[in-house]
Amino acid sequence: MNTAEKLQQLRDLMRQHHIDAYIIMSADPHMSEYLPEYWKSRQWLSGFDGSVGTLVVCQDFAGLWVDGRYWLQAEKQLQGSGFQLQKLSHDAKTTHTAWLAQHLESGARIAVDGQSISIQHYQALEQVAQEKSAEICHELDLIAEIWEDRPALPVKPVRLTAPGLDACSRSEKIAQIRAALVEHKVEAHFISAVDDIAWILNCRGQDVEYNPIFLAHLLITTSIVVLFIDRAKLSDAVESALSLDHIEIVDYQHSAAYLATLEHSTILLDPAKVSLLHYRALANRCQIKFDLNPSTLLKAQKAATEIAHIRHAMLKDGIALCQFFSWLDQVLAQQQALTELDIDREITAYRAKQDGFIGLSFATIAGFNANGALPHYRATQQHHAHIQGNGLLLIDSGAQYLDGTTDITRVVPVGIPTSEQCRDYTLVLKAHIALARAVFPEALAAPLLDAICRQALWQHGLDYRHGTGHGVGYALNVHEGPQVLSYSAPITAYSGLRPGMIVSNEPGLYHSGQYGIRIENLVVNQIKAFAEQQYGTFLCFETLTLCPIHQAPIVVELLSQDDIQWLNDYHRKVRQQLAPHLDGAALAWLIQQTQDIAMI
């Protein structure tokens, strides 16, 4: 079926069930960002394959809500689909719930699959329903009725993390969660966030592309631990290791039914990470307390040993990147035929040679000129550009190693960039350096740092429509919370930056139809030592990523002395750490790219 036929079949089913508006979230029962194929309902129906987005389907309207990162991509992919792009912004009036409140008639019937909507999102939908005297049906998965060749749920094997990589044992982490239950004055905690579960259990999987996780739910009470998982994923060795910590195994599909049997418990749920299905299974018999998963904050603050392993992963990544960029420079200098697809293939091949490489941490973004203006662009066989002539090539890539997760963006000048491109590149570099040099009080709300980074761009009337930084997991998801550097993010009790948190530093600038620029490193919060401590503890960022920042497009006159000093210091560090592991053309490229810029 094409998109129009799928949409028509859905509307036919909606009429049969007397549904006025059907909502399709980009989520699974774990509220994950990256989904197994089974749960990619939004992509299957609309054709839009960005990582986030919400669909609303009525008889006379179908819309896709996405934020500014995806506007250009959605405009292209929705052409002829029957879906209209709805531009989601910081304004609450641009949400899909605001649209429903404005357009639904009183007494309307709304439907959403309770397995793929969080408690938090359902509560927002309930407010609309109350205002419109509407009914919400949450037990219908209409997509399942028309998606005839829907993929099965994955059953890839779970593995134990390698000895020595985890700072705490499984039993110690469970004890930490139980201590948090005492603090919250609850008897139990139900967890659906798959990266939290992988972290707690010191296990990894391969159920979802790019993220080394496995589909499971976890119940931890003061007396028992229950893992809801497809047993086919567990080898004898893994199951034996879990049993040593008294973890009971229950079938994944029976999680809601099991929860429905719990009585008289006070249970902790993260409303952003637990589905409506599981909430309703608990709500009739248990008292619910909402708060962030304790494990989310615990895993965000990396231990010193974990940071040491991540530094080793960054070293390996830096070696591979120098080899790749050396190859790329040679190809460009010889004016050989080159496409964006070649970039993806080659950068992956160089990383794959490194010890402990598992795979990519996200789909490589290699965008030349206009394609670089799409923050989440991905070249395909059908749509990709040849890299020739003059301009800028944006490469955003990352890897999963056994001992760490990487994420880096560099911009490569091709031919002779324009003076405007060089100016913009330098302004983005200044923004990057401003954040890298920041010193701030411990527990400062992360969104407040965003303005420091954007100032270099704001002074020229420029900006970008994505956050400046996201948390990064330890050999886990490339996106993790609660830390986020974005002035549009809400400030909560858990927004404070703490030692050991890893975030990305990735300001950018995008001119639609022309070019895009983004410079990204990963940084870790460290305590800044001061002789005088009367004003409390201060933090600073240690840059973990090891790879030269291309100097050719820099307009030196736009940099301050402090900017130049930071860049020279960074490049000396990169050269010192990588040079002993390189030779030949890659070593020559590293040395040439890390030469000091003369002070003005």
UniProtKB/TrEMBL annotation:
The keyword Hydrolase applies. It comes from the Bacteria. One of its GO terms (molecular function) is metalloaminopeptidase activity. Residues 538-597 form the Peptidase M24 C-terminal domain. The keyword Nucleotide-binding does not apply. One of its GO terms (cellular component) is cytoplasm. Residues 309-524 form the Peptidase M24 domain. Residues 7-131 form the Creatinase N-terminal domain. InterPro entries: Creatin/AminoP/Spt16_N, Creatinase/aminopeptidase-like, Creatinase_N, Pept_M24, Pept_M24B, Peptidase_M24_C, X-Pro_aminopeptidase_P. Keywords: Aminopeptidase, Hydrolase, Metal-binding, Protease. Belongs to the peptidase M24B family. PANTHER family: XAA-PRO AMINOPEPTIDASE 1 (PTHR43763). This is Xaa-Pro aminopeptidase. It comes from Acinetobacter larvae. The lineage of its organism: Bacteria, Pseudomonadati, Pseudomonadota, Gammaproteobacteria, Moraxellales.
